[in-house]
Amino acid sequence: MFDFTPDNQDSLLLTDIYKPKTTAEFVGLEKPKRLAVALAKKPFSSYYIFRGPSGIGKTTFAFAMAEEIGADVHHIPSKYCTEAELERHYSACFYMPSQGKRCHMIIIDEADLMTKASRDCLLSMMDGTRPAPNTIIVMTSNDVEKFEDRFISRCQSYNFSSQATQKDSAALLARVWKAEAPEGAEAPNFARIVKDSNSNIRMALNALQQELTLVKD
């Protein structure tokens, strides 16, 4: 899902070098991009689920969106998403954001792995009885099957799994190859790499890295 520009040149990994810094640098994802633009113009308390398989940039997109919005980020990795941790971050959202920030954003990774108790705790935060002002909650999830309808109905869901075409992804790999491969090196089949990676850009870049290692030896 990434439309990379070179960034971290200290790393040798393509996934680091070409990690996107803005939402515009993602391939596809037109609906999430429009969401980011709308919230950047006027942020408001709202709840979102970014769903799709691992490695397609859901969390990276959430952080890029937060930067463009000017949000004070509260990040909760999935293994730390306990009731106490949710309460700690949510309580902080009742205070003014850090200097220069416009609102709060809670980003919860792999929310589908939360315990039922944690999901119920989060649901109580979204049901309107104790709303935190100027607070956006973004959850990433591989799927939404574990969420009850009453939970999903309070969120806007964005599908990250099928919004970048194989053609766009292959074109991205071609641009990376042109920038990184030795002059005259025979290019691999970019479309095949994308297909074999199930359109997972992170996996595709790792496969491309293997091809680059062979031509550089």
Question: Could you characterize what this model shows?
Answer:
With 217 residues, the chain is an alpha/beta fold. 42% of the residues lie in helices and 13% in strands. It contains 9 helices and 5 strands; from the N terminus they run H-H-E-H-E-H-E-H-E-H-E-H-H-H. Helix 7 runs parallel beside helix 9 (201-216). The protein starts with 13 loop residues before the first helix and ends with a helix.
Overview in brief:
The protein has 217 residues and is an alpha/beta fold. Helix content is 42%, strand content 13%.
How far the N terminus sits from the C terminus, by CA atoms, comes to 29 Å
Low-pLDDT stretches: none
Q: Please report which band the strand proportion falls in: under 5%, 5-15%, 15-25%, 25-35%, 35-45% or over 45%.
A: 5-15%
The whole-angstrom Rg is: 19 Å
CATH class wording of the largest domain: Alpha Beta
Coarse shape? elongated
Overall number of structural domains = 2
- Structural category is alpha/beta
Elements, N to C (H/E): HHEHEHEHEHEHHH
Q: Look at the structure and name the CATH superfamily of the largest domain.
A: P-loop containing nucleotide triphosphate hydrolases
Q: Judging by the overall fold, what is the CATH architecture of the largest domain?
A: 3-Layer(aba) Sandwich
Whole-number mean pLDDT:
88
| Count of individual helical segments | 9
Q: Tell me the number of strands.
A: 5
What is the oligomeric state here? single chain
Strand ordering within the main sheet: 2-3-4-1-5
